[in-house]
């Protein structure tokens, strides 16, 4: 009976340790949802501009070309941010699986779990930096449109 109690304790501990990464997964999912919205708006704006582009010449067309270039950069940044967020979420999932595996097989997997956590946070940091840059570009592009 003591072996069973020990095993149940290990599994219970693994579940407790998995709670924080699950909250992290929720936050990452929310971030991906926000990024999807921004991507959709940028793609829609790009399509609209591309349709209108043929009807304009001169300075107006040059302005539209500049906006298309900014939109292309924004779309690229959102895609990088989403890829980083998904990578972070995948690493968190592997981290949770590794923690449970360690509890079931009674192995010390604390080092791999720590490495996975650092990698997940690193990917999340890259996501947030790309997101911040995209927001900055969007803000500056809107400001330039209103000033012109």
In total, the number of strands is 0
Basic shape: rod-shaped
* Radius of gyration from the alpha-carbon trace, in angstroms: 23 Å
In percent, how helical is the residue content?
A: over 70%
* Discrete helix count: 3
Q: Which class do the helix and strand fractions yield?
A: mainly alpha
What is the average per-residue confidence, as pLDDT, rounded to a whole number? 88
Order of helices and strands: HHH
The unreliable regions are: none
Tell me the count of domains. Answer: 1
Classify the oligomer. single chain
Distance between the termini: 78 Å
Indicate the proportion of strand residues.
under 5%
The major β-sheet equals:
none
Describe how the helices and strands are arranged.
Blueprint lengths: L1 H52 L4 H48 L4 H38 L1
Helix pairs in contact: 1-2, 2-3
Throw out a few tags for this protein.
148 residues, single chain, mainly alpha
Architecture overview:
By secondary structure, this protein is mainly α. The protein has one domain. Helices cover 93% and strands 0% of the residues. The chain is built from 3 helices and no strands. Helix 1 runs antiparallel to helix 2 and helix 2 runs antiparallel to helix 3. The longest helix is centred in the N-terminal third of the chain and has 52 residues. The protein is rod-shaped. The chain starts with a helix and ends with a helix.
Give a quick summary of the entry.
This protein has helices at residues 2-53, 58-105, 110-147. It has 148 residues and is mostly helical. The relative contact order is 0.13.
């Amino acid at each position: 009976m003591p072996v069973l109690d020990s095993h149940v304790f290990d599994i219970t501990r693994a579940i407790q340790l998995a709670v924080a990464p699950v909250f992290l997964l929720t936050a990452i999912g929310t971030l991906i949802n926000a990024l999807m919205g921004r991507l959709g708006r940028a793609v829609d704006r790009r399509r609209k501009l591309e349709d209108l582009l043929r009807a304009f010449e001169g300075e107006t067309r040059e302005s539209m070309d500049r906006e298309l270039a900014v939109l292309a950069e924004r779309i690229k940044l959102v895609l990088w941010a989403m890829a980083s967020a998904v990578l972070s979420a995948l690493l968190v999932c592997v981290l949770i699986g590794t923690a449970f595996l360690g509890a079931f097989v009674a192995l010390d997997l604390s080092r791999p779990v720590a490495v996975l956590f650092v990698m997940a946070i690193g990917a999340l940091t890259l996501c947030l930096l790309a997101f911040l840059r995209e927001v900055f570009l969007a803000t500056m592009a809107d400001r330039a449109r209103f000033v012109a």
